[in-house]
């Protein structure tokens, strides 16, 4: 995981770039992209509700990291899509998927000591993927870059909407 | 309105699928051939044997007689050979287990403030997203859907 601020701002940047060209990508839709960028980090539920605690209470195995896989994310995005009215579902699903995809891409580029990433593609494959190891989740520059680019796009989108109204 | 029960069925199936995935992921065990190495749990449980490659995380606690002492997160202390880390540093490493010690092969060593930064800035990202969701969407309790605040046009 890169830091969550970088993830949600990257999702915002991608959605805002589309919003500059396509009026269907409203502020609510750019927010949906940010939510999509957050979903793979739902495995952090384990920080407040550790898996072993739940396992001993329920008597079944549990892996919160399922949220950080394409399988868990696909199901979570399905739930998000059904939370909105039918006419907004396609757009919402697309924006959620945009955010979640950018999350996986940024995390795939991370540096892991073993050289293998987490098994993001589970349940397609349970194998860790050999990654490029470009940066650490605690690096400061990704968030700095994301803040600057997201800020510039926020201004651009705001000016476009003001000119249109 | 036939769409309402269909939505209920779809949501129920998705919730079932989510529970199934969470349980199935909990049954995954280490498989070095697939890039999934035994971790802190396996070292604590003593299920690793000499020569096994492991990925562990913990806090450096200064010099030990033949290396650096590492307090594993939620687990025991181990001695790591070939590791250069100041006391208090956060360590995440890939190495080879050998009878209670680990020979470091590749380590990520970070000052504790870097981990604090990671959590603080991530919390900021979470709060920012939550704030935007509350600002741009609202819950329509008549139909149990979330709808955009901007006049329903999406």
Describe this structure in words.
The complex is a heterodimer of chains A (165) and B (154). Chain A is mostly helical. Chain A has helices spanning 4-19, 27-38, 45-48, 51-58, 70-81, 89-108, 141-164. Chain B has 154 residues and is an alpha+beta fold. In chain B, 36% of the residues lie in helices and 32% in strands. A five-stranded mixed beta barrel of chain B has the order 1-2-3-5-4. A two-stranded antiparallel sheet of chain B has the order 6-7. The model of chain B has no long low-confidence stretch (mean pLDDT 93).
Helix content of chain B: 25-40%
**Structural class, from helix and strand content of chain A?**
mainly alpha
User: Share of helix among residues of chain A?
Assistant: 55-70%
Portion in strands of chain A: under 5%
Rounded to the nearest angstrom, the radius of gyration of chain A is 17 Å
- Beginning-to-end CA distance, first to last residue of chain B: 22 Å
Structural class of chain B: alpha+beta
Beta-strand content of chain B: 25-35%
Reported for the largest beta sheet of chain A, the result is: none
Uncertain runs of chain B are none
One letter per element, helices H and strands E, the order of chain A comes to: HHHHHHH
Q: Mind telling me the C-alpha Rg of chain B?
A: 23 Å
Q: Biggest sheet of chain B, in brief?
A: 5 strands, mixed, barrel
Overall pLDDT of chain B, averaged? 93
> Largest contact between protein chains?
A-B, 63 and 57 residues
């Amino acid at each position: 995981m890169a830091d969550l601020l970088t993830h949600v701002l990257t999702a915002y940047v991608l959605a805002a770039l589309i919003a500059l060209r396509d009026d269907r990508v409203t502020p609510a839709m750019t927010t949906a992209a940010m939510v999509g960028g957050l979903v793979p980090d739902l495995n952090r539920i384990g920080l407040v509700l550790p898996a072993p605690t739940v396992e001993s209470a329920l008597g079944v195995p549990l892996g919160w990291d399922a949220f950080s896989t394409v399988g868990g994310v696909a199901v979570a995005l399905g739930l998000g899509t059904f939370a909105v009215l039918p006419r907004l579902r396609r757009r919402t699903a697309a924006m959620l998927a945009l955010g979640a995809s950018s999350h996986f891409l940024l995390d795939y580029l991370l540096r892991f000591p073993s050289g293998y990433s987490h098994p993001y593609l589970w349940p397609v494959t349970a194998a860790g993927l050999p990654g490029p190891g470009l940066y650490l989740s605690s690096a400061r520059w990704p968030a700095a870059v994301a803040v600057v680019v997201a800020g510039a796009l926020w201004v651009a989108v705001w000016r476009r909407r003001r000119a249109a109204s | 309105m036939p769409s309402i029960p269909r939505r209920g069925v779809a949501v129920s199936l998705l919730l079932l699928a989510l529970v199934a995935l969470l349980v199935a992921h909990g049954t995954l065990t280490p498989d070095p051939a697939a890039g999934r190495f035994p971790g802190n749990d396996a070292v604590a449980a003593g299920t690793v044997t000499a020569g096994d490659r492991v990925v562990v995380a913990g806090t450096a606690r200064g010099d030990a007689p033949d290396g650096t002492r590492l307090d594993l997160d939620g687990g025991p202390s181990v001695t790591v050979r070939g590791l250069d880390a100041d006391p208090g540093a956060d360590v995440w490493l890939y190495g080879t287990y050998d009878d209670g010690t680990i020979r470091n092969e590749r380590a990520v060593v970070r000052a504790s403030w870097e981990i604090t930064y990671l959590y603080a800035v991530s919390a900021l990202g979470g709060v920012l997203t939550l704030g935007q969701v509350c600002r741009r969407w609202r819950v329509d309790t008549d139909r149990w859907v979330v709808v955009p605040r901007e006049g329903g046009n999406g």
